[in-house]
Design goal:
heterodimer, A: mainly beta, 4-stranded antiparallel β-sheet, 0% helix, globular, B: mainly beta, 7-stranded mixed β-sheet
């Protein structure tokens, strides 16, 4: 059973950088699959941010592509999200997740609320 | 690809069945997943490949459809089934896209 846990600051100032890490346990991130980030603004629906593959290849939502970087660290069995130049519109619960063979998400972290506010 | 779910809210009595719809703006073949989300929880995968139940999902959840029209049916609703349901296409990406969700509430 794969376990994922988001970690990072819960409050970020406008124009600064949001950084979250997803710590993976009970499964080796080196075994493959897509590792992704999805967010959900309060009271709203789900928005895919991006995926990273074991090779380091990453795929991003075009709406966020200019501001987002997802990276993978196999030595620490974790992957990370970096979103620059944040605004209040980036306030959301951020989920990390692992795909099945196809890019749909069978395993999710519990989510981390990140608020953008001064 | 834009995913549109209807209705936004569905009021159902326990024991009754619920039919949720998801429409894609262009064909996604069978590359469609359904998720259930309860308040304060992460989404849970219910269905993938339009009709295959994920591990541990009860048989009262069934998915059907292909191309642009999909349906999630929940037969004999239990109290734990009242939640928000999302569809997601993974046929043509990036981006992966979700529908806006259908809230199934107690009538």
């Amino acid at each position: 059973q794969v376990h994922l846990q988001e970690s990072g600051p819960g409050l970020v100032k406008p124009s600064e950088t949001l950084s979250l890490t997803c710590i993976v346990s009970d499964y080796s991130i080196s075994s493959g699959y897509y590792w992704g980030w999805i967010r959900q603004p309060p009271g709203k629906g789900l928005e895919w941010i991006g995926n990273v593959f074991l090779s380091g290849n990453s795929f991003y939502n075009p709406s966020l592509k200019s501001r987002v970087t997802i990276s993978i660290d196999t030595s620490k069995n974790q992957f990370s999200l970096r979103l620059i130049s944040v605004t209040a519109a980036d306030t959301a619960v951020y989920y990390c997740a692992r795909s099945l063979g196809a890019p749909l998400f069978g395993y999710w972290g519990q989510g981390a609320l990140v608020t953008v506010s001064s | 690809i834009v995913m549109t779910q209807s209705p936004a809210t569905l009021s159902v009595s326990p024991g009754e069945s619920a039919t949720l719809s998801c429409r894609a703006s262009q064909s996604v073949g069978f590359n469609l997943a359904w998720y259930q989300q309860k308040p304060g929880q992460a989404p849970r995968l219910l269905i993938f490949g339009a009709s295959a139940r994920a591990t541990g999902i009860p048989a009262r959840f069934s998915g059907s459809g292909s191309g642009t029209e999909f349906t999630l049916t929940i037969s004999s609703l239990q109290s734990e089934d009242f939640a928000v349901y999302y569809c997601q296409q993974y046929n043509d990406w990036p981006p992966l896209t979700f529908g806006g969700g259908t809230k199934v509430e107690i009538k």
